[in-house]
Amino acid sequence: MKQILKNSPPTRGIDHLAFVTDDLPATMGFYTKVLQMKLVHVRRVPFEMDRGQPPYDNLRHYFFDMGHDQLLAFFEYPQGLDKQNRDLPGGMQHVAFYVPPEKFDDLIENVKAQNVNVIGPVALGGRFWSAYFYDPNGIRLELATTRLSTPGGIVESVYQSEEEARKELETLFDDPETVDYWLSQMPLKHQ
C-alpha cells in the first residue's frame, strides 16, 4: 500500500461547499435568517464544456460566509427537476456545522424561532452533541458542538484509542496486516 502523509494535510479546510437549489430566494432567507450567515457574493456562471460544471448556462451562483474564512454556495437550477437522494452512494448525506458551545443553545433557539423543525440536541457519544433539521432544498443540516470541559480541537476530539480503532477496522478487513497498516496511519489517543 502507498504511504499516507503522517503530518498535516496540505488542505486547510473548506474553501466552499456548492449545493443546488431551485428556489434561491427561499434559500437566501433560510441561510441568512435561520443560520445567520451573511450573503457575500452574487454572480452568474457561463456554461463551458468539459469542466464538470452544471449543465445550464448563466446560472446564478450565490455565496454565504459560514465563518472562519469558509463559504457555502448555491447554484440555482431550473424548477421541476428530480430531487437528489441523500441516502444513495454518491449523494451527500448531510452537512455538519461546528458551533462553539457558548453559541450552540442560542443558535438552536433561533432555528426553532424561524419555525424550522429541529431534532435534538442529542448526545452522540464522546464530544458530540448535535441537532438536526432540513433546509428548504431538503438538505439535512447538523449543528455540532461539544459539552466537554476542555474541548480541544475538532479533529483531535475524534482521536480514538488503538483498541477502539482496531475493533472497528477488524469489522472491515479480515487481514491483520491491513488492520495494522491503517492503525499505523492514524493518530491515536494514548491513555
UniProtKB/TrEMBL annotation:
Gene3D superfamilies: 2,3-Dihydroxybiphenyl 1,2-Dioxygenase, domain 1. This is VOC family protein. The keyword Metal-binding applies. Keywords: Metal-binding. It comes from Advenella mandrilli. InterPro entries: Fosfomycin_Res_Enzymes (IPR051332), Glyas_Bleomycin-R_OHBP_Dase (IPR029068), Glyas_Fos-R_dOase_dom (IPR004360), VOC_core (IPR037523). Residues 13-146 form the VOC domain. The keyword Metal-binding applies.
